Amino acid sequence: MKRAVIGLTILMGLWLILGMIVPGLPVAQEVTSDEASATPAVTSEPTRSETEAALYPMSHERKELLISYSQFTNQWRFISFGLGILTLAILLVTGLSAKFRTWAYKARRRFFVIFIFFALIMIADYLLNFPASYYRNFVIEHEYGFSNQTFQAWLWDDIKGLLITLVLGVFPVWFFYWLVGYMKRWWLAFTLGAIPFIIALVVVAPVVISPLFNDFTKIEDPQLESRLLELAGRAGIDDPAVLQVNASEQSSKLNAYVTGLFGTKRIVLYDTMIDNFTYDEILFVMGHEMGHYVMNHVWWGVGITIVFMLFALWLMDLLIHPVIRRFRRAFKFDSLEDIASLPLVLIFVSIITFAFQPVTNSASRYMEHQADIYGMEIAGVPGETAAIAFDKLSVFNLSDPNPPELVEFWFYSHPALSKRMEFVRSYQPTGQL
Ligand SMILES: [Zn+2]
Question: How close is the Cα of 372 to the center of ligand 1, in Å?
Answer without folding.
Answer: 8
